C-alpha cells in the first residue's frame, strides 16, 4: 500500500457547555498511524472517548481540528452515503451509526473503495453459546486477511473478554479521559498502571 490504511493526524474533538461563556467539558486527542491490515483491541472506562474516536474515524462526528484519512482519502470529505464504503461503525448489537450532514454531497468526494476498508466493532455482544465466539473471531480474521483494518472495542466484565483480545489482537489502544495510549502487545497493556486499575481482578482471572 502506498498510503497508510489509517492516519489519524492531530485529531482533536472538544465538547463545551454554555452559550455565552463556553466551558470545555471534554477533549479527545488522537494522533496515530496504522500502516496495514490489522486487528486492534480498544479498551477504556465508560466515558473515556472510545465511541467518539470511532465516530470520528467513520466521519459521523465532525472533529474540532485534525484529519482522518483512509488510504490517503480524508473520510470527512467523502460523500455521506458513501462513507460506509471506507469505514463502518457497528455499535453494540451491530447496528450501523448514522452521519451528521454538514454540507451538500455534490461538493464532496466519491469514495475510493466499494467495500469498507476499516471495520469498527463497538462493544459487540459475544454470545457464549457453542461456536459463536469462534465464528466471530474467524470473521474478524477473514476481514484482516482481506486487507481490512478491524477495531475491536471491548468493555471487559468477564475473563473471556480479555482472552478474546489476547488471542486475536495484534496491537492495542487504551483510552482514558480523552487520551490514547498505544501498545504492541497484550502484556504491555496489562502492565500499564491505568489499564491495570481499570481491569482489576480480571487480569488474574484471565491469566
Which segments are poorly predicted (pLDDT under 50) over 5 or more consecutive residues? none
Instruction: Tell me the number of helical segments per DSSP (H or I, 4 or more residues long).
Output: 6
Kindly report how far apart the N and C termini lie: 37 Å
CATH topology: Rossmann fold
CATH class annotation: Alpha Beta
Task: Specify the biggest β-sheet.
Answer: 7 strands, mixed
CATH H level, superfamily name? P-loop containing nucleotide triphosphate hydrolases
Helix content: 10-25%
Number of strands: 11
Number of domains: 1
User: Which strand order do you get reading across the main beta sheet?
Assistant: 7-6-8-9-3-10-11
Taken from the alpha-carbon principal axes, the silhouette is globular
Mean pLDDT: 90
The H/E string reads EEEHEEEEEHEHEEHHH
How would you sum up this structure in a few lines?
The protein has 207 residues and is α/β, with parallel strands linked by helices. 25% of the residues lie in helices and 32% in strands.
Layout of strands and helices, then pairs:
Blueprint: E1 6-17, E2 23-34, E3 38-43, H1 50-58, E4 65-70, E5 73-74, E6 87-91, E7 95-96, E8 118-122, H2 132-145, E9 149-153, H3 159-168, E10 171-176, E11 179-183, H4 186-191, H5 193-199, H6 202-206
Parallel strand pairs: 3-9, 3-10, 6-8, 8-9
Antiparallel strand pairs: 1-2, 1-4, 4-5, 6-7, 10-11
Amino acid at each position: 500500500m502506498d498510503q497508510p490504511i489509517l492516519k489519524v493526524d492531530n485529531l482533536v474533538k472538544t465538547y463545551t457547555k454554555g452559550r455565552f461563556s463556553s466551558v470545555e467539558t471534554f477533549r479527545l486527542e488522537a494522533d496515530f498511524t496504522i500502516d496495514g491490515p490489522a486487528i486492534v483491541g480498544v479498551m477504556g472506562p465508560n466515558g473515556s472517548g472510545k465511541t467518539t474516536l470511532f465516530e470520528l474515524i467513520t466521519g459521523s462526528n465532525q472533529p474540532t481540528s485534525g484529519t482522518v484519512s483512509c488510504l490517503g482519502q480524508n473520510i470527512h470529505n467523502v460523500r455521506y452515503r458513501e462513507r460506509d464504503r471506507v469505514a463502518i461503525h457497528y455499535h453494540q448489537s451491530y447496528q450501523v451509526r448514522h452521519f451528521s450532514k454538514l454540507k451538500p454531497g455534490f461538493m464532496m468526494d466519491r469514495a475510493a473503495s466499494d467495500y469498507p476498508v476499516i471495520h469498527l466493532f463497538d462493544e459487540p455482544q459475544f454470545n457464549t453459546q457453542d461456536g459463536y465466539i469462534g465464528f466471530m473471531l474467524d470473521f474478524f480474521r477473514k476481514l484482516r486477511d482481506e486487507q481490512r483494518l478491524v477495531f475491536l472495542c471491548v468493555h471487559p466484565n468477564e475473563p473471556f473478554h480479555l482472552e478474546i483480545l489476547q488471542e486475536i489482537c495484534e496491537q492495542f489502544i487504551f483510552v482514558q479521559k480523552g487520551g490514547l495510549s498505544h501498545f504492541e502487545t497484550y502484556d504491555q497493556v496489562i502492565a500499564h498502571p491505568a489499564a491495570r486499575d481499570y481491569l482489576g481482578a480480571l487480569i488474574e482471572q484471565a491469566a
